[in-house]
Fold these 3 entries.
Entry 1:
Amino acid sequence: MGFFSWLLQQFGWRPAIRTAPPKNPDNAGENETSKDPSPAHRPDSRPAPEKSHSRPSRRSEPRQKHRRRRTGKSRLVPTRRKKVTGSRHRSMPFVETKGPAPYRYARYGSRTGHYLDLSRDGDETRLQRFNLPVFHTPEELANWVGLPLNRLAWLVHRFSGGRPETEGAAHYHFRWVKKRLGGWRLIESPKSVLKAVQTKILRELLDNVPAHGTSHGFVKGKSILTNARPHVGQAILLKFDLENFYTTVSFARVVAIFRSLGYSREVAIWLGLLTTSALPGNLRFQEQGPYAIAPYFRRHLPQGAPTSPALANLSAFGMDIRLSGFAKSFGATYTRYADDLTISGPSDLHYALGTIIQLVYKIVRQERFSFNHSKSRILRAHQRLTVTGVVVNEHPNVVRADFDKLKAILTNCQRHGPSTQNRNQVEDFYHHLQGRIAHVSMLNPARGQKLNELFLAIDWTK
């Protein structure tokens, strides 16, 4: 016996054994009658298949039309997007004009050799719904901003290919800040002229557009306290963090936001250029690696501009809709504060944690955001449950370690003088302590009153 034959027998893969017909001619007819009845007495005239102990061949089996799906992975079935039959209704296409430009700085069609009029596809009905200013061309936008059109074109780098050539020619101040858990964050603060334009866009345009109800970051009337209250007293708490939240929002997404509000394509492009940033080629990076440079390579939403939080909330509107409805289907609660996602629910949520986490990852990736997996947490009721720095085990409260540390600082300021406690060399230490006391008072008024009494007893002449 060969080795392979012995191995096949050990696994039970034995060849079919065929028996020879009987040699006795007298019993041959009897055996044939008993083993092979006539077709009239047999229910099926086809010959019966031979039993075989050998492994069935895949080629002999008919190929199934639908294969069995894997049950170990959760799948998302889209329900909010209906399949459109026939031709999809498009917005008004751009108009090619033969002759002079329809307006200043009109875009030139390189294939057709004519100017493109992108100012005719606005929707004033949508603009009036949110009480937004109406303009269709760059001239009208410049008049609303209060700058000459050439000055506005200079702000969007119209004359330098849409990107500053050097760091000095950029309209942002660039500053690298080291993250608490490692890595670097780029702060892009707009200069005075661009900051004034972005502030006007924020106050008179973006502030009129509401964010989703589950969004609590940078929303008027909401704070970390309103973000934490829905999760008070829950048995299970899931915390997720989005990586590079602002830089993930690209120029195309910002233009799509302004288009959805009802602005024409020409104005949406100019507004997108005014509220996004493109880094100069000579900017130095703290981490000279592909993963450090890649988020900032394309035109993105700058962290430090006054319009970035509002635009980031609007870009995450679809994600908030899907995650809030998804959490509600499991009997859970969902909130978001900037890039911090929180889902909480009763103890029954424990049996569906695997499915919930998988589907949350899928929804976030489908909405074109990415996770910082090192900050994902699963917390239970026997642990300290914190949501954006607020303890939510029984009621909203301040972290005990932070309260004790601030209380010790105020006590030492009262005994030894405030100059001995300003170890980080804060410029305005007086208002710095007032702000920290106000934060504690917002979460726990009783503890905040005790700290305020210690603060009033400090002699600031020491």
Entry 2:
Amino acid sequence: MGDNNSGRVLVGFASLDGLAVDEHFGHAQYWQIYDFTDDAEFVETRKMPPVCGGSCSENFEPAYQLLKDCAALFVAKIGQPAAAYMLGKGLKVFEAAGSIDRLALAIKEQGLV
């Protein structure tokens, strides 16, 4: 489960508007971070340059460094190399779209993290 020493269960959502998962992993500039330790509570927005510009390289380390304390990531789409990289580092990755509130409810109900 990521590299989280705080005991919190953090989840990152790739979201441009902060309300819905609407970004491809490689193009995501904004990550909405929620704490699922007790309830789905917004923690912060993290910003980063997209790891892919036009075509994806295999340099996913900057994204990992930004998100390594998360147990799971939710993105609109993710390519196989990026997914394999993040999974290999211990982060769960899910392709999903829609409102963060709706996804948070599903995460809690289904015990995804």
Entry 3:
Amino acid sequence: MVSSQLSGTLGHDMSDTTTEQPTATGTETVVVIVEDDPNIADLVELYLRRDGFRPFQTANGKRALEVIAERQPKLILLDIGLPGDLDGLDVCRSVRATSNVPIIFLTARDDEVDRVLGLELGADDYVTKPFSPRELMARVKAILRRADGLHEPGAEPAVVDLGAGIVISGTRREATVNGDPVALAMREFDLAMYLAVHRGLALSRRQILDGVWGADWIGDDRTVDVHVRQLRKKLGDGFLLETVWGVGYRLD
């Protein structure tokens, strides 16, 4: 039943939710919803429409990849527990092979292994069911603001040279090692730039979350640890990010 999956604070009539799939125009922000529970998918679509987005629904992994390729969304809302041969983790892995489009996992699984694996595969955030649609919309908007590069003027330098061949370009939103581009997910890049801007400072996980994910982000502090592991893996030994025990991390 949908009441077991969604927050009890909804109070909305489902009769005004439609399953008709619209045609996107060039000026609308397309969001793909990959969710096999039609009640949840319809409700999320309703909130997206009310906030001015153009949603497209799909209920399985194979079709999701087709819709994502066709519609080129600005963001994907992706259920982990999809039916069929491809689950949400498989879809995320496939998308990340060619795209850095932001991904938020919608999951009924409260298993830390699933959350960590999803983040390691390049998901930007996750929401555990039951969830508040209003909270989900807040996260969608926050991630899209970052994806659109709406940062405060002068908050980031154009280029940061970290030595050992590692260069981070804020204008290109690109990291290179010895001149070769390194594929970083959106949140991984934001974390690398935040650490570079605050180089030499010991930063707590809470400070990092506030600076990279936003002060209104709700989630596990260990999300930072997952992304740190990914940065160390992708940028190599020259990325001198030290663990400061009892505090957090410091980029030397």
